[in-house]
Amino acid sequence: MRFLLLLQRSKNSQLLIAIFVTAILSVYVYTLLRLADKVLFLVVAGYKSTGSYELGVTIFFLASSAYLYLIRNQDWSRTFPFFSTAIALFFPLVVFSSILRINIGLPESLHHFYATDFCDPVVNEDLCGQALAHIVFSMTIRALPLVLTVPLLYRLLFHHLFKTSMVASTDDR
Amino acid sequence: MTGDAFGANAEEQTNQRAILSLVDTRFREQIHQTLTDRTLTESLVSALFYMNLSTFLSISLAANGLSIRSTTIYLSAAYSLILFAFIMQIGFSKFRFADRLIKNTYFYGLIGLLEDATIVIALYFNATAEQQVIPIVVVMCICVATFLSLPVSTRLFASFTVSKSLIFLVCITYIISLGDEESQNIILIFPLIIAFVFIFALAYWLYFRQIKLLHQKFEQEELRQIIHDKNLTLNDAIIAEQTANTELTQAHRLREKIIRHIGHDLRQPINALNYSLFNIDKNKLNKDQQEQVNIATKSVEAANCLIEEVLQIATYKKTELTANRERFKVSKLLHIIEREYSVAAQQAGCDLRIVKCGLTIYSDFQLVSRIVKNFLSNAIRHAGGAKILIGVRRRINCVEIQIIDTGQGIPLNIRDNLFEEFVIGDNAKNNEGFGLGLSITRHLAKVCGGEVSIASTINKGTRCSLSLPCLSTD
Predict the structure, then answer these.
(1) What is the pTM of this model?
(2) Could you say which of B145, B340, B378, B442 has the lowest number of CB atoms within 10 Å?
């Protein structure tokens, strides 16, 4: 509790709180992604994990911190549209990141798996549309628990942990 | 069906047609503005919805053979168009050109058309790839996407119809052009067309419902405004009437007060004068002097009568008179009148004749007597040398006492307002009277539950009538 109070009294409390909350949530995201991978591998037939989470979690951490800082500086009472927008952008972002991963950095083992199981490597060296669809499907189904829980956690954290800070910042404005 | 009901039904049908075409309806501009105007939230929701929809469509096509390159092309183009439309709506609405563009229905139509055209472009690129998407799958995906976009797109039905129909037709043409190679696809065309027609029927219903609701909303607003205006006008009228009534009441009070004062102040010197005239010993006067005294006495009596009339009208208007009804024979009334007025009529050179009557009426004897006396004294005063006839006529529900004279008649210019106060004819101005008699008469007749009327012809005569309700007759 003392740590939270210190955070609130700090000069850059807005930014620090954003980083603190996002850090907690990044750990949560990483854990849930690994857990979802293991569960889906056992439950869903043909499920293939797309592997490394480090890059994704780092992007999440940076983007979320900036995003959170931004919305806290805008207007606290209007967070709902921001979170809704984030949820709505989830699917298009998954597709684009999948396309990027296929074109830039898909691990060799995964490339081989998709090329042999989904596409015809004799006909085309590149991956086909089916492979993309499968990657999107895997990523979507894996991240679905996150999409549903992360906004709620954000809201809970801000409402319960940083309520005082929130009121103070609103009054200042 | 009655004429009115038929008319209302026809009007309703006309309105429905007008609403449907959005041409003849009064609220065309407002409805159009409502359809094209979007808030920031609406624009954002719409943009996000279309982004997700196009992503869903692209992944569905990719799962069925669309290459990654074609998917990327389609998504890039679709996202660019969606973002363009969104930025135009939120960022450039301040500029007149952009505002006009956004308000135009065809702007959204064009965006939709371009979005759909990107699918065709993506398919064209895909055609060059080794793996190809099955055309029928494309059509099915388009059908699903169109169905999903119904709630958002039908807001502007025309653009929705144009863009979706064109993309559907292009795909169908593509399938047909494949011919026998894809015979399986051709079999599926028919149910797909049915599905697409169904989607359009649904879209049309949604659109029509939306327009109708908007029409009703604007109609209600208009009615509310009309009622508000009418209420304001009514309130103003009520206030004006109340003010007028207050002023009128004050004027009436003032008039009564003045009349009473005049009556009281005039009576005293006139009574003194009358007393002095009465005390003059006429035997000591010569003939001329006696005549002058007689004239003075008559003038004083006339002045007394006038004052009495003025006071009566003031009293009748102020206090509530009630009729003391009783049964009495008309003949009794006529007999008293004949006795009282025969001499006066003779002096005025009138030939007074009274027709005997056996009817019995149920009314206030004194009031009826006053009314008849008033009519008769008027006739004697204004129709000197004429014949005067008093008679009673039995009508269906009433008894009518008529006083008919063959005098000079009542001038046309005062006939319409004979019963108003202070109305005097030109030929009567030399005579005594303030023109209050008939006003009092009408008031008394109302108290008795009857009516008075006067009919007159110039140089032929006048007929004054008093109608009394016939409650009991012999």
Answers:
(1) 0.55
(2) B340
Interval B252-282: pLDDT, tens: 788 777 877 777 777 788 888 888 888 887 7
Contacts of B4 (CB under 8 A, 6+ apart): none
* Partner-chain residue, chosen from B51, B71, B75, that has the shortest CB–CB distance to A129: B71
* Shortest CA gap A97–chain B (Å): 11
Contacts of A81 in chain B (CB under 8 A): 41, 44
By C-alpha distance, the chain A residue nearest B61 is: A129
Task: Report the alpha-carbon distance of residue B230 to residue B234 in Å, rounded.
Answer: 6
Q: Classify residue B39 as left (phi > 0), alpha (psi -120 to 50) or beta.
A: beta
CA distances from A34 to A41, A144, B418, B452 (A): 11, 13, 109, 109
Is A105 domain-assigned? yes
pLDDT, tens digit, 9 for 90 and up, residues B413-468: 777 778 877 767 665 545 556 677 788 888 888 888 889 999 988 888 999 999 98
> Which residues on A lie below 8 Å from B63 (Cβ)?
129-130, 133-134
Which among A84, A87, A90, A130 is the top mutation candidate for probing chain B, defined by the most B β-carbons within 10 Å of its own β-carbon? Answer: A130
Please give the residue range of the domain that contains residue A102. Answer: 10-167
Among B410, B406, B409, which Cα is nearest to B352's?
B406
A74 in a structural domain: yes
Domain residue extents for chain B: 3-229, 321-469
> CB pairs below 8 Å between A and B: how many?
71
* The domain over range B321-469 is classified in CATH as 3.40.190.10: no
What tokens appear for B248 in the block? 């009128």
Å from A133 to nearest chain B CA? 5
What is the count of structural domains for chain A?
A: 1
Confidence class for position B233, pLDDT limits 50, 70, 90: very high
Query: What pLDDT digit, counting tens, does each position of A12-45 carry?
Result: 677 777 788 888 888 888 888 888 888 888 887 7
ipTM, 2 dp: 0.78
- Taking the Cβ of residue A63 and every Cβ of chain B, the question of whether any pair is shorter than 8 Å is answered with no
Res. B153: pLDDT tops 60: yes
